[in-house]
């Protein structure tokens, strides 16, 4: 099991994460130097980093767990499909689990945690209890950003997550007051509501990562400007087939992506982005796969293939160090 999960982690890092790194690095470098990318390029840049960090960090954790098992050491699970989360609290329960546990035990609880003033059956103490809990949630999220670094990007990232945790807590407090038979409570049980929750949570996480990654605040602002206010530009090669879209404001031209992707078409990037969503949202994570793993020929073959491909990529020029080595 140790070698199997190690091979998965190494493949995630050197094949998937480092492929996303090329596009993320090029895009962020452009906006940090004052460039304004169009809408598609901006979203491709932000999503590339979102998936780069996911596969880099999850690969790092898989490799650590795998190496530990090879030496008979069982390390705690630190990463459990966080992009499947339907709210920000669920995201933090599954992202960097050991850091979250540390902050809870040595910061959140000493600050008072959820408090316990409501037992006095007074509206004042109930309100005070809730306010102190909201304060504690924000402080913990804010300091988790400072833990990653003292730059303004990390401060803003931590503050955004702090505000999100506060908003989610208030939302849950209001939800508890709703009648279980109300129309909204019934709507919360539908697939549409679940989908909306995921879209809101994932996009918030993706936007917050922009500040986490950018070397300067202006670069982050430039990228967000392109994401939400940039023009919609498609490759020049599609103009003959989709030229009618120009009436709706769509432009055709040479895209920045074409200078980054080695192929003439940007389809390679699209495939990787689609694969990123499929892997993070619909497939079991590494620990779930290994938990029921049996020694079979096809498992050994799969492991050997992943290791072989990964070793080939390590020898290439696109290999980069683990992102979380910085923290």
Automatic annotation (TrEMBL):
Gene Ontology biological process terms from the UniProt entry: alginic acid biosynthetic process
Keyword match Endoplasmic reticulum: no
The keyword Transmembrane is assigned to this record: yes
Highest taxon in the source lineage: Bacteria
Transmembrane annotation, as ranges: 57-77, 124-144, 150-171, 192-211, 267-285, 297-316
Keywords: Acyltransferase, Cell membrane, Membrane, Transferase, Transmembrane, Transmembrane helix
Compartment annotation: Cell membrane
InterPro entries: Ac/AlaTfrase_AlgI/DltB, AlgI, MB_O-acyltransferase, MBOAT_fam
Protein name, as recorded: MBOAT family protein
């Amino acid at each position: 099991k140790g070698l199997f999960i190690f091979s998965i982690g190494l493949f995630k890092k050197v094949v998937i994460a480092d492929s996303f790194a090329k596009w993320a690095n090029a895009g962020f470098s452009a906006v940090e130097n004052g460039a304004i990318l169009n809408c598609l390029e901006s979203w491709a840049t932000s999503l590339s980093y979102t998936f780069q960090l996911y596969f880099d960090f999850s690969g790092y954790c898989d490799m650590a767990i795998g190496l530990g098992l090879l030496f008979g050491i069982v390390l705690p699970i630190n990463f459990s499909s966080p992009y499947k989360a339907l709210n920000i609290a669920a995201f933090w329960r599954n992202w960097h689990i050991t850091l979250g546990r540390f902050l809870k035990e040595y910061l959140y609880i000493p600050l008072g945690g959820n408090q316990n003033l409501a037992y006095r059956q007074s509206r004042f103490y109930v309100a005070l209890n809730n306010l102190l809990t909201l304060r504690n949630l924000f402080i913990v999220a804010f300091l988790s950003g400072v833990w990653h670094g003292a730059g303004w990007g990390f401060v803003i990232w931590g503050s955004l997550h702090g505000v999100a945790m506060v908003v989610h807590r208030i939302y849950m407090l209001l939800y508890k007051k709703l009648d279980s038979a109300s129309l909204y409570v019934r709507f919360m049980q539908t697939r549409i509501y679940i989908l909306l929750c995921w879209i809101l949570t994932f996009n918030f996480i993706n936007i917050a990562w922009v500040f986490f990654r950018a070397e300067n605040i202006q670069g982050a602002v430039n990228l967000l400007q392109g994401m939400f206010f940039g023009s919609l530009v498609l490759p020049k090669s599609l103009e003959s087939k989709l030229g009618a879209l120009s009436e709706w404001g769509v432009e055709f031209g040479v895209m920045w992506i074409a200078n980054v992707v080695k192929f003439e078409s940007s389809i390679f990037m699209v495939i990787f982005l689609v694969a990123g969503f499929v892997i993070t949202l619909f497939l079991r994570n590494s620990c779930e796969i290994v938990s029921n793993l049996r020694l079979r020929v096809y498992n050994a073959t799969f492991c050997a293939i992943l290791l072989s491909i990964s070793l080939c990529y390590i020898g290439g020029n696109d290999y980069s160090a683990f992102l979380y080595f910085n923290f």
